[in-house]
């Protein structure tokens, strides 16, 4: 499945953000660089979910420049962070160079996350042709998807076992730490099962719920596990998540030994 751009925001939002960016004083952002930048609205407002229009939502802007233009920007002494609390909604913008994004899209630790951020954001203007770059990155994501699924599933399984082991020993704090990591990995892995990149933790459950009825079921199982205080029940809840994940992974990857005998494939 190709990663797609969402279009669920109110129609006037793009014009409002474009007007704000165009009106930035030259002491904040030079006029001569405005037509050279890519501007993308991320966060809940850029994604287009309900929370993006509530009183807590801000405008989280990514402003990208070619490396040479970014050097000129920083040499002039201007702040690469714009924190405008006077505007309604509050605006928080980061001015970065194109290499900054390329590094995050290429590193294994951040590639999936930044692919999600940029494919679920609202592009206000795209003079650096970042959308073309993302299309190529999407192809790479799809090519490596089997390996991503396997690696994430094994990590999830390790944390599931750690959760059960800590709970059995009565180590409440350790069980809590591990179950949080287990839940995060379960949600990330499920997104990969559905051939989609995943967001940062704040919107991870929301994202998975939107993927499918099975995703909503998984979020419910994760909530039950996180809110449980009885250590014995935490262990059983974690096993229920494990069983769910193994069934869903088999649907996507087919019968594979690493799904059920993951420890044989774990690399510490």
Task: Describe the protein's architecture and organization.
This protein has a five-stranded mixed β-sheet with strand order 3-4-2-1-5, sandwiched between helices. The protein is elongated and about 60 Å long. α8 runs parallel beside α11 (231-253) and α9 runs antiparallel to α10 (213-227). Helices cover 59% and strands 10% of the residues. The protein has helices spanning 13-22, 31-34, 43-47, 67-75, 98-106, 111-119, 130-168, 172-193, 204-211, 213-227, 231-253, 257-260, and strands at 38-42, 59-65, 81-84, 91-97, 122-126. The chain is built from twelve helices and five strands. 35% of the residues are buried. It has 268 residues and is α+β, with helices and mostly antiparallel strands. β3 (81-84) and β4 form a beta hairpin.
Share of helix among residues? 55-70%
Helical/strand content category? alpha+beta
Radius of gyration: 21 Å
Task: Give the N-terminus to C-terminus distance in angstroms.
Answer: 31 Å
- Coarse morphology: elongated
The helix-strand sequence is HHEHEHEEHHEHHHHHH
Mean pLDDT: 94
Quick one: biggest sheet? 5 strands, mixed
| Weakly predicted, low-confidence segments | none
**Major sheet: arrangement of strands:** 3-4-2-1-5
Task: Name a few traits of the molecule.
268 residues; alpha+beta; five-stranded mixed sheet; 59% helix
Q: Which helices and strands occur, and which strands form pairs?
A:
Elements: H1 13-22, H2 31-34, E1 38-42, H3 43-47, E2 59-65, H4 67-75, E3 81-84, E4 91-97, H5 98-106, H6 111-119, E5 122-126, H7 130-168, H8 172-193, H9 204-211, H10 213-227, H11 231-253, H12 257-260
Parallel strand pairs: 2-4
Antiparallel strand pairs: 1-2, 1-5, 3-4
Helix pairs in contact: 5-6, 6-7, 7-8, 7-11, 8-9, 8-10, 8-11, 9-10, 10-11
């Amino acid at each position: 499945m190709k990663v797609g751009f969402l279009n669920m925001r109110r129609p006037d939002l793009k014009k409002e953000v474009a007007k704000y960016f165009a009106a930035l004083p030259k002491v904040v952002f030079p006029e001569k660089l405005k037509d050279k930048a890519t501007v993308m609205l991320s966060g809940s407002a850029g994604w287009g979910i309900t929370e993006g229009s509530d009183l807590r939502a801000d405008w989280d802007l990514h402003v990208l420049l070619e490396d040479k233009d970014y050097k000129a920007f920083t040499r002039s002494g201007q702040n690469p962070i714009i924190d405008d609390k006077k505007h309604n909604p509050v605006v928080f913008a980061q001015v970065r160079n194109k290499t900054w994004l390329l590094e995050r899209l290429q590193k294994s630790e951040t590639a999936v996350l930044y692919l999600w951020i940029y494919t679920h954001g609202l592009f206000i203007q795209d003079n650096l042709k970042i959308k073309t770059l993302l299309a190529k990155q999407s192809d790479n994501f799809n090519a490596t998807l089997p390996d991503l699924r396997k690696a994430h599933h094994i990590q999830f399984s390790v944390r599931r076992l750690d959760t059960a082991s800590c709970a059995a020993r009565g180590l409440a704090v350790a069980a809590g730490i591990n179950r949080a990591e287990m839940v995060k990995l379960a949600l990330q892995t499920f997104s990969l099962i559905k051939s989609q990149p995943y967001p940062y933790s704040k919107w991870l459950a929301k994202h998975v719920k939107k993927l499918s009825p099975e995703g909503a079921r998984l979020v419910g199982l994760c909530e039950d596990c996180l809110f449980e205080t009885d250590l014995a029940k935490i262990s059983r809840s974690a096993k229920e998540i494990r069983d769910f994940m193994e069934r869903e992974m088999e649907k996507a990857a087919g019968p594979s030994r690493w799904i059920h005998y993951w420890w044989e494939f774990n690399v510490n």
